[in-house]
Amino acid sequence: MSLKRSATADKEDDEISTDDEDYTPYIPIKQRKKMELLKIKKKLGHVAAIKGEDLLKADSSGNEEEKEPVKKLIMDDSENEDNRDVASNEENEISEQDLGPLAQVSLLDQHSVLKKKAEARKETDREKILKEEEKILESVAEKTALMGVAELAKGIEYTEPIKTGWRPPRFVLEQPLEKWEKLRKKHHILVEGDDLPPPITSFKAMKFPQPIIDVLKKKGIVTPTPIQIQGIPTVLSGRDMIGIAFTGSGKTLVFTLPIIMFCVEQEKKLPFMKREGPYGLIICPSRELAKQTFEIIKLFGDCLSSAGYPALRPVLCIGGMPVKEQMDTINRGTHIMVATPGRLMDMLDKKMVTLDVCRYLCMDEADRMIDMGFEEDVRTIFSYFKGQRQTLLFSATMPKKIQNFARSALVKPVTVNVGRAGAASQEITQEVEYVKQEAKMVYILQCLRKTAPPVLIFAEKKQDVDAIHEYLLLKGVEAVAIHGGKDQEERSRSVEEFKRGEKDVLVATDVASKGLDFEGIQHVINYDMPEDIENYVHRIGRTGRKGQWGVATTFVNKSVDESILLDLKHLLIEANQKVPAFLATMESETEKYLDISGEVGCSYCGGLGHRIADCPKLQAMQTKQAQGIGRKDYLAHNSADW
Fold first, then answer.
1. In which element (H, E) is residue 499 found?
2. What whole-number distance in Å separates Cα of residue 414 and Cα of residue 196?
3. Helices assigned H by DSSP within 62-167
4. Taking a C-beta distance cutoff of 8 angstroms, is the pair 253, 231 a contact?
5. In the Cβ-directed half-sphere of 93, how many Cα atoms lie within 13 Å?
C-alpha cells in the first residue's frame, strides 16, 4: 500500500463526516492550508503577511496556474462568512507563528530598535537616580561657607590671590601652552582653575637654593614627582590650592618647601621680633604626622642656616607635650607653626599665640578635618586670621563633596589632581583573604613570612591592637604598638624605635595611617577591614612609596559590611589587582549605575561600590548626629589631639 496520498483522497477526507469521532485525517486541514500558503509564498517571493489579495499583487510576472490556489481559497472564503473568519484567523496565526510581526525587519534593525528602547528606559532610571542624589546632596551640604566667623559677619570677600615675589623662569614662560598641556598629560596631571601656573620639571628651575637641592639629593629625590611638578609652582605663585594625589607621592614637599622660602624672604626683609609670628601655619590631624612634618621643616631650615641663610624658628604644638617648651620658641618669635587642631585652638583661645601676621595656611589630610563634623573647628581657626591668607588643602582621599565645600574658603583655587581622588597606588600588590574571626591572630604569623621587616599591622579597635601586640611579643616578635589611648611619650618612643629599625613590627590604629612616612615598609597587614574605604587607602599607602613596591594583606570575613566589600572589589578592579572569587561574585542593585553622570561611585565618600543613596558613611554620620556618639579613635581618642 502506498503511503503517498492523492489530492482526491485528501479532498475525500475533508468531505468525510465528522460524526466518526475515531477518524483522524492524515494531514489536518489547518496544516494543509499552511503548507499551501508557504508553497505559494515561496514561489511568488511574497514577504508580507499571508493575505489572498497581497499574494495576487506580489508577483505580476507569476502565471495564473500558480495563483489559482489562492483565488480558489479566496472564493471559498467568500462563500461562507464564518469560514472566512476562521480562515483569516488561521492565516494570521500562521503568519505570526511562522514569520512573526517583524518578519520584514532585519535582525540588525530589530537590535537597533530594542537598544534604543533599552537606552530610553535606562535614561529614565538614571534621571530618577540623579534627581534623588541631588536632593540627598542638598540635604547634607553645609550651607555656611568655610570662612572665618568675622569674615562671614562683615561680608568680607577676597577676589584676588596673594602676590608673591616668585616668578617662573623666562624659558618656561616662553613655552607655548600646548607644551604645558602635553607635559601634564604625560604625567597624568589634571588641573582645574583660572590662569594656571606652568608645570616645572626640575627643582633648579623652581629657583630653590643649592642647599635645599643638595638635601633632596641625599634623600634620593632628584626630580619632582607629578604632584610636585604642578603643585610647587602653584604654591610659589601665591595661589590657593587643593592638592590630591595617591599616598607616597610627595605631597609634603609641595607645601613645606614654599613656606620655608617665604619665611626666609620675610626674615631677610625684616627679622621677626619677640612674640611675633607665625607667618605660616600647618595643621595636621594627628600628633605623629605633625611631628614628622615639623622634622622635615627643621631639616631644611638647618641646612639653609648652615649655608648662611637666616635661621628659621619652627615650633611644634601638639598635645602630650609641655606647653612651656612650645611657648619658649613662640616668645622668641616663630616663623612656622605645625600643630594639631586641639592644641592650636586651646592656645588661640588662651591668647598664647596670635595669627595676626599669618599669611600661609596649610591643612594636611584636609578631608579628615573638614569631614565628620569638624567644619566649626576649622572655621573657628580661620576667624583668628587678621587678613587674607593663602590656603592649601592636601589629601589622598577627597570626595567631590569635600572639594566643593572647601572651595568656599579659597580664592580662585587651583585643583591639582594626580589620579582619581581616593585611588590606591599602582605600586602596591593588594591581597584580600577570607579569614575567620577566631583564626586571625594565628594567621598573622603566616603573613609575616611574606616579606622581610619592617611590617605595619592595622586594627580598628584599641583592644585589638593591645591583643595583637601581646600575642606577637609572646611569639618572640619584636613589636611595638600605638593608639589614641597611650600617652604621648610612649607613642613617640614606639614610632622612633620602629623608624630606627630596632623593632620589626608596628601595631597601630588609624592614628598611624594618615601621612606617616616609614622608610622601607614592604608589607601592611589589615587585621580587619576599616569602616570606610578611605581609611583602607590610607592604610595600605604606608607601603609602595617613593617608587618602591609593597604588599598589602587584608583579612575579611562575614562580619564585614557588604557595602565596604563592594567598594573594595571595585578598588581592586581599578588598580588591576586580582579579585578573590568571593568578592567577584558580589553584586549590588545599583552597581550598573556606578558611572552615571560622569561621576564614578559615591559623590559623598568616594567609594566605588555604591552611590550616595546607599552610602554607609553618610548613614553612619546621620546616625551619630542623631545619637550624639563620640568621634572615632583616629580622630579624637585623645582630646589633646584635637
1. helix 488-499
2. 7
3. 64-79, 81-98, 107-140, 149-154
4. no
5. 10
For residues 105-130, give the mean pLDDT. Answer: 73
Residue 457 pLDDT greater than 90, yes or no: yes
Closest residue by Cα to residue 233 from 202, 260, 273: 202
Residues 6+ apart with CB under 8 A from 318: 287, 290, 291, 339, 340, 343, 488, 640, 641
pLDDT digits (tens, 9 = 90+) for 17-31: 444 445 555 677 777
| C-alpha cell read off for 183 | 607635559
**Length of the chain in residues, anyone?**
642
Q: Which sign does the torsion angle of CA 597, 598, 601, 606 carry? A: negative
Residues 6+ away with beta carbon under 8 Å from 110: 102
Can you tell me whether residue 627 is helix, strand or coil? helix
**What is the distance between the alpha carbons of residues 18 and 21, in angstroms, rounded to a whole number?**
6
What is the model's pLDDT at position 223? 92
Among 43-57, 441-455, 505-519, 570-584, the minimum mean pLDDT is found in: 43-57
With both helix axes pointing from N to C terminus, report the angle between 440-447 and 462-474 in degrees, rounded to the nearest 10. 60
What mean pLDDT comes out for the span 378-406? Answer: 80
Q: What's the confidence (pLDDT) of residue 636?
A: 41
Left, alpha or beta for 640 (phi > 0: left; psi -120 to 50: alpha)? alpha
Question: And the C-alpha cell for 28?
Answer: 489536518
Burial status of residue 62 (CB atoms within 10 A of its CB: 0-12, 13-18, 19 or more): middle
Q: Which amino acid is present at 626?
A: A
Residue 524 has pLDDT above 50, yes or no: yes
Residue position matching grid coordinates 601655619: 281
CA dist list (Å): 408 to 144, 147, 556 = 9, 7, 39
User: Could you tell me the CA-to-CA distances from 267 to 119, 152, 278, 555 in Å, in that order?
Assistant: 64, 32, 12, 52
282 bridge partner residues: 338, 362
Q: How far apart are CA 321 and CA 560, in angstroms?
A: 38
State how far the alpha carbon of 586 is from the alpha carbons of 86, 579, 580, 594, 608, in Å: 54, 11, 10, 15, 14
Q: Which residue has the cell 613656606?
A: 259
Q: What is the dihedral of CA 278, 282, 287, 292, to 10 degrees?
A: -100
Q: CA–CA separation, 336 vs 314, rounded Å? A: 5
In this structure, the number of other CB atoms found within 10 A of the CB of residue 338 comes to: 29
Could you give the percent of the chain with pLDDT greater than 90? Answer: 33
Task: Give this prediction's pTM.
Answer: 0.69
pLDDT at 154: 64
Q: Quote the CA–CA distance of 158 and 387 in Å, as a whole number.
A: 10
- Which tens digits make up the pLDDT trace of 158-203? 888 888 889 999 999 999 999 999 999 999 899 998 899 999 999 9
Among 240-249, 582-591, 626-635, name the one with the lowest average pLDDT. 626-635
CA 460 to CA 440: how far, in whole Å? 14
CA–CA–CA angle 473, 474, 479 (5° rounding): 10
More confident position, 628 or 548: 548
The answer to whether the beta carbons of residues 339 and 318 sit under 8 Å apart is yes
Q: Is 37 exposed, middle or buried (0-12, 13-18, 19+ CB in 10 A)?
A: buried
Long-range contact pairs involving 628-634 (C-beta distance under 8 Å, separation at least 24):
631/372, 632/372, 632/510, 632/531, 633/460, 633/461, 633/462, 633/483, 633/484, 633/509, 633/510, 633/511, 634/285, 634/286, 634/484, 634/509, 634/510, 634/511, 634/513, 634/514, 634/535
What is the rounded distance in angstroms from the CA atom of residue 346 to the CA atom of residue 192? 36
